[in-house]
Amino acid sequence: MHTAFAIYFLSCLVYLYYAAVTSSYNLFLAVAFVSLAIEGFVVYFINNGNCPLTYVQERIGDKKPFFELFFPKKFAENAFKIFSIFTWIAVALLALKFL
Q: Are 7 and 78 in contact (CB under 8 A)?
């Protein structure tokens, strides 16, 4: 389940860049943008920088952080910050293309 959410949000991020490059302002862009905005709000403002699924993951006995399954520990510890930077860059590109 955690992987499915991660793939979905990564796909949303990739679509932001695709939309910026192709100037595609459509429903897919709106869904991707709103999805990432909701995720960011939940992660940063409601859970103090932690993924809400981490608590479920720990409750079922998996103590290894999700991003450490795919990335080195140093990157995994900062994954949300890094992905946030990539998201803001994509939003800036979209805004520049729109203007």
A: no
